[in-house]
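User: I'm writing a tutorial on reading structure tokens. Could you give me a worked example: one chain, its sequence, then its tokens, then a sentence or two explaining what the tokens reveal?
Assistant: Sure. Here is the example chain.
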Amino acid sequence: MSSKKAIIIGAGVGGMATAIRLNLLGYTVQVFEKNDYPGGKLSHFEIKGYRFDAGPSLFTCPYLIEELFALANEPIAPYFEYEKLDVACHYFYDDGVCIKAYTNKEAFAAELQEKTNEPTKNLHQYLHNASSAYNHIGLIFLRHSLHAVKTIFTAPIIQAIGKLKLSYLVQSLNDYNEAAFKSPKLVQLFNRFATYNGSNPYKAPAMLSLISHLEHNEGAFYPKGGMISITNALYRLALKLGVQFTFGQAVQQIITEDNQVKGVMVENKQQNAAIVVSNMDVYFTYNNLLKDSNKAAKVKKQERSSSAFIFYWGMSKTFPSLDLHNIFFSADYKAEFDAIFTTGNPFNDPTVYVNITNKLEPGKHAPLGKENWFVMVNVPANTGQDWTVLEQFYKEAIIKKLNKILGDTIESYIEVSEVLTPVTIESKTASYMGSLYGTSSNSKMAAFMRHPNYSKTISGLYFVGGSVHPGGGIPLCLSSAAIVSNLIQDKYKDHS
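And here are its predicted structure tokens:
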């Protein structure tokens, strides 16, 4: 198979993982990336001694990265190190209650009973159900193409059906959580997991309850050096294996002939390849690279996931009450999601997420006695809003909320400030409308409506990353890479 060449469009996490896997299958792999750095959304930057991870900030499922190094027979330690967190997140409520989500289930249950009077059995039952749903149902979505006939014969579908609760299909995540917990605080806490794929817990199916399994049964982790170390590890491994990267050159077109991929056009020069894998948003792949407005329109019909407003603040003070991951909840969660997905109006009491990597590595991500704050609120995808006006709106809303809960005047400590809007998310990462996860999961059939990992009409064309099956987020992007490489291996095994 060494004579076969594969081209990857985009050096995001999914693109790099696919490049590694195809290289190990014997392909010569060339990656074209329009930016001058790898990682896509998983990038970073530094200003005046403050280091910021620019995109995803939660790390789960480290085995998906370890798997790539194991396949390559390469020791992971020189490339990548991580540690398990004792506390997954600090949750702050409007009434002053703070809940520490311990990764030890007994400690977490005791914390919930103390702070909310929630019976410990409720948490244990919830997480048991989440584990069962993930291991019997979720893994089919994560390891198999839902669109390939072979999946019917290879995936453990019968066992999955046996574990499928009616409530997973007919209830919303919020309804399911209200039945599982007595405390509204716990309902809100577990509703939050819908945001992990940019969805609305009041509309998204209860099946999304399995997402909590990753954080509370398997654990949350911190990669040494910050999230950028994931990008660096994958990039270094790919280089070691011989994957070729070309940065600063955008693919202009995917070339096809007789429903077969022939290569791509870059810098007005044709690059031939039998296989092309697009790590670009599937909408832009069709609209810009294939000039297929009909297919692009079909993708466009599906509801976008939420986007985000991110403020990167260098703070001239440390805050002992905060940890690596911190959530400051809205007092009216339903109204917040109505604003994001229904009205599209700015919401004056947004849920605020604050990530501070300097908590885990003091002095390495911010000057001594200071902190690097990654501050994010969920917002609607870009439909032409005036984001300059909204930047000031959200900044004021965030400061008002944090001042109230922390009992301080945080604006006086901000000495460095950068911002990422839905518009810049789209321009930097080619994410249509700035949506973080492609389409939302706000319908019962959303998982089946995600675009497949291969083209049904163009042989040799594949899709990887957050805008296609199985979805957005680092674990799902890594899973999509495995699905793509398996599809290619199965199709071309007779040519090896």
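What the tokens reveal: The CA atoms of residues 81 and 224 lie 6 Å apart. The two ends are 5 Å apart (CA to CA).
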